[in-house]
Specification:
It contains four helices and no strands. The protein is mainly alpha-helical.
């Protein structure tokens, strides 16, 4: 496994892009981690802009809308809530992934 990693990064070292295989792996891991953090922050920011609130507020809003369905059944409202629930799921996944990548960032010292 280690030899596979060295074989992958060796061309970068040979061309002087990195001083050593360890430096190459460290920099590539750092860069990848930062790109993932940026990716999931952007998704979070897009949902914040779309709904004009943060995830916790949106979750409370969505629970209230879902409760309305029991008292006031409506096909249009049902479809709207279903679409919002899909967004809520995607938003939660993005927030969880952001949290994971931020944890990795702390551990690897990015």
């Amino acid at each position: 496994m280690v030899s596979d990693v060295i074989a992958i990064v060796e061309p970068f070292v040979q061309r002087g892009v990195f001083k050593s295989p360890e430096a190459a792996v460290a920099e590539m891991a750092r860069d990848y981690t930062l790109r993932q953090i940026e990716r999931y922050r952007m998704i979070d920011d897009n949902f914040r802009a779309k709904f004009g609130m943060d995830y916790e507020q949106f979750d409370a809003y969505l629970k209230a809308r879902s409760a309305m369905l029991t008292s006031q059944p409506s096909s249009a409202l049902n479809q709207a809530v279903m679409a919002e629930e899909e967004d809520a799921f995607d938003w939660k996944v993005a927030r969880d992934m952001l949290s994971n990548w931020l944890g990795i960032q702390v551990k690897v010292g990015v």
